[in-house]
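dumping the sequnces here before i forget
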Amino acid sequence: MRYLDKTVVGLSIAFLVLLFADFFMAEWVRFMGLQSLARGAVALGLLVLWRTGLVSFGHALYFGIGAYAAAMLTLVGYHDAFFLVFAGTLASGILAYLLGFLLRRYRGIFFALLNMAFSMILYGVIVKTEELGSTDGFSVLAPTFLGYAPEGEAVQTTLFLFTLFFTYIVTVGVHLYLKTTLGGMSMAVRENEIRVEYLGYSAEKVIHVKYVFSGLVAGFGGAIMALAIGQVDPDSMANWNVSGEFVFITILSGIGNVAATFIGAFVFELIRTYAFEYAPLFWQLILGGSLLAIIMFLPNGIWSLVDRLRKSEG
Amino acid sequence: MQELIVILVDGLVFSSYLFMVAVGLTVIFGVMKILNVTHGSFYAFGAYMSATLIGAYYETDWPEFGGFLAIFAAALIVGVFFGIVLERGLLRFLYHRDEHIIVLATFAMFLVLEDVLLMIWGTDPYFAYQPMSLLGSVDIAEMTFATYNLTLIALAVVVGLGLWLGLTKTKWGKLLLAVIFDREVSQAMGINVTMVFLVTFIIGAIMGALGGAYIAPTISVSPGIGVEVIVLAFAVVVIGGMGSIPGAMIGALLVGISRAAAVHKFPEIELFVIYAIMALVLAIRPEGLFAPAQARKI
Amino acid sequence: MNFTNKPARAALLATGLAAAIGFSAGAANAAETVVMAVPTFLTGAGAPAFGVPARNGAEVIIEAINKGTLPAPYDKSGKGLAGRQIKALIYDESGGGVKQVAEFRNKVQKQGVDLFVGYISSGTCAAITPVAEELKMLTIFPICGTPRIFEEINTNPKYVFRTMGHATADGVAEAHYVKANLPDVKGYTGINQNYAWGQDSWRDFDLAMKQLMPSVPASDKAQWPKIFSGQYGTEISALMLSKEPLVHSSLWGGDLEAFIFQGAARGLFRKKKLLFSVADTSVYRLGKKAPIGAIIGARGPYGIFAANVDTPLNNWFRKVYSDRYSTLPVGGSYQAAQGVLAAKFAYDKAAAANGGKFPSKDQVIAALEGATYQGIAAKVHMNRSNGHQAATKHMIGVLEWDKEAGGPIMTKVTEFGPDCVMPPQGINGTEWLKGGMKGAKC
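..and the predicted 3d for all of it:
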């Protein structure tokens, strides 16, 4: 029973509830949920990196690669969601593996900015590629699922189930990994890398593994996003402020628990949606203001609310 | 031959623009180790304030050249105001936090200030072309250049030299270097680090605002100008080495002249020049060309 | 910190919250209004040039529709859309296609919107088209320019309309104008922003020129500045050194204005002939600083080109608009107003056909498909892409300063018929251009 801790139980309950709720949710909530799962997946990757003290200001690179890889495959006639998402995830993972050899040598703000530099190169390449619609991007047809070709609302319903299932597996997997020795090593790398190396572990290898993982999940998120929205474009997928949003979600969630990233992503969507609805001229102010408030008053993210709740009860 | 001279002049003008845009960012990073996204807001507020003051100035009958004072006044007002408000009101509460959190806080502040800008000045653009018209044009190698653009080169040299001399030759500069080298030990030695940080942040803010204020007469001061500057400034600073003033200068020159050559010879690749140089430098010397050495603390 | 605490409750809380919001949401829309979403740029660089003028134009018309004060030919159909008041939701188009798609779904599924009239950027229109069709939402694009909407993204639209000509018409009209007015031109170059709109504009102008003036060479060093760069010193030098006397540019808004300031200071406009495809957005604002003597367009017969159109509708529009916003309406204002009028026209026509009862969505769509209605400045013929894409006449002219009136005016204006500049029904614009513009009636 060592794998069945409270987080796993919680995630499983949430999974089942959402699975059931999928068939009753208002369409816009499901759509928001789908986006939250996609962005939350990227934030999950960032969480894993953050545990080692590394923050990337350029994960829109992997998000964008995942989205564009999936979307480009639809242009040449592939429409199966399993294949598209797998390909998008893999493409990002391969890129992360290659760039990882360079990036694993850097720490702190250099690591953050080096990632941003690479993401901006991707942005430039997409803008320059008229065949891919430049800044306009191009649309992605509704996917099929192993031969099943849903229509209308069923597309989103099925995609939500699909996404939920994989997100659940990945999230539980990450949680369990973080409990292993290698996973636990990340905190040690953050606290003092040199001491870790004296213990016989290679800090660079730890970082490289995590980096590839974060690339994989970001690619997964991007591919899901491309299918959910039915459109890819560089400003929403690969620009630097998209990377900023991912870090925003990570801070909002706190790095205390894997489940928090998805709640954080959902809260982010809520803030943005309502700010947009009630203050169409000043939504940036509200978004920025909430971020500041969280940084100042909830330094460990919304997860610390759960902690406080527990303490006051217990 | 003519083309070569033109490329050089164009390149120098653009480099000076890049330097002015980036220098404030590198000053703040050098001393405080804060990557300040709000820099884009300083630039934008500087430009708006400059356009407003220039507009107001030319409503009067005062001597025409006084309009230039409006530019510097705008930079001072914006820089000192935001420098104090942001450092005292926000950043000082965050110094003990993770450096990435501070970046995110300045990112959040940038978002807020974008809308504050909109509340104050609205969406209509502001024009302040008088200083540029006033200076007219000069011919170099049978090519007409706007004199105002050329003065940008002088401004960049003055600012760059001034900061560099101030840092290496004055007592204040030496205190600053001590803080840069080791914040904790400096504090223990009796240096008022709080004051050093505040002053540095104000200087950086003034530099950011001055970039915007001086550019304002050549552009249409309209929403969104701050965003564009952030990435540009980041790139220059990353290439030169974060926190290094000579680095920012070299980075600006490298990008500026390469870009000018690209525009004249291969305009198709203009978009990539800056990113390509950034990637190349980062791959070879990731800390940037002139990064100060970092001590590894156990 | 304890990493394995009780997340079950939090997860339940969150999902419960989500579910509660989800189940309680319904289209809480009073039956007696028509909810019209009007997305337009309210922030960012697109706001002053297009977004805000478009919002203003739409507001003027929506208010007049609700009060029933529109002049002829809309003065007999009573207040509102088929008798129902419009409830307008004006919101920001900034943030890119993905965010706008999300917002589109929100507006439809959460706020019970009945129709959309809006979107300025081609990127957003391209992203919205498939979703609008999927959600079966009547959507009228009044402004965006990319031909791809009905040529690639959806060739058989049912719910999406565009009420102005697309970007191909601009390139064709410009090339015709150059051929007629600068027959001896020795060559042309360009400066266009390096993004979709700039790339499309240059491609279409270039293709049309190759057909109409095959002996005139294009420069291989057309300039591609980054969008919103604002610094054009180097590009101006390169243009001045180039041997081609004509410069094509689709710059707009702040970029255009910066380019004009910097170019004027260096005598670029004395040395080269400039052709600006959307400079009308800046002419009033720039006043005497505007590029006098340059060839300019407004993507159709709008803005400054409509200054002398003497119809009750246009006179009323110009007066109400300038009284209210202390500036004259520009292209975006006219185009947005034209989009809202399409809704007025379609709802009223459908109601009339429905025996005076409020029409269904399908009836409104049927009423607009293939129709011809009166825009503020010109007739709009919905006769391309199965009746979903408009064609209107197009105008190009030379900007001059009217000393007596103390304002900018258009001179040497040439008018091109809709069938001269727009590709015929069912033909891809680029292929039509490459094939020699067959079937054009000029």
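Chain B touches chain A through 43 residues (CB under 8 Å).
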